[in-house]
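Record Methyltransferase domain-containing protein, 218 aa.
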Amino acid sequence: MRHNDSTHRLSSPATVAGDPTGRFERLYAEAERGEADVPWDLDRPHSLVGEWTDRTRPVGSGRRAVVVGCGFGRDAEHLAGLGFATVAFDISPTAIRAARERHPGSPVRYETADLLDPPSGWLDGFDLVLESMNVQALPVELRRRAIPAAGRLVAPGGTLLVIAAGRREDQEVDGPPWPLTWAEVDAFAAGRLFPVRVEEILAADGGIRWRAEFRRDG
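=>
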């Protein structure tokens, strides 16, 4: 089986409907065996994350960050390099094992965890929460739970940064992924979170991307 065929099979609607989160572990396990490619396996942080940190120059020293759905750790290593005490988690144990192996001696704490049921000690615990391109991979019923779940990790005075592919409200898509509408991005402003800046960015492929920054009341 070709690598692209394997990735496509694990993202088919039938697979997603039957096991919307377990398919990620299967993808990483097949990649570990050389039977699949992980499309987001890059050696640099997401460009929209890198641009945001270049622009805002967040002070990491003495502050905690968490990366949701960290995969092999590219964004987590970037934030750790800025001085954040960084936790990075993924629902896939294979991804976490690979991240630890790829970054020996890293200060990042890589953990297997589920955004929908995180350790209680993580709630309200992070000065910077990064959710990049994960929620859009979930079917609608899980997206509705995952969006507020990301915000519950933000500490008082902290920031939630959301990166996602975007679509118009009337645009139908056959996911996964399901690019987020403006309303879905706006829904991250739940509880005591409020939007600071929401950017609609034209991507090279002609689609749009969201980069949204939210702050929690102190």
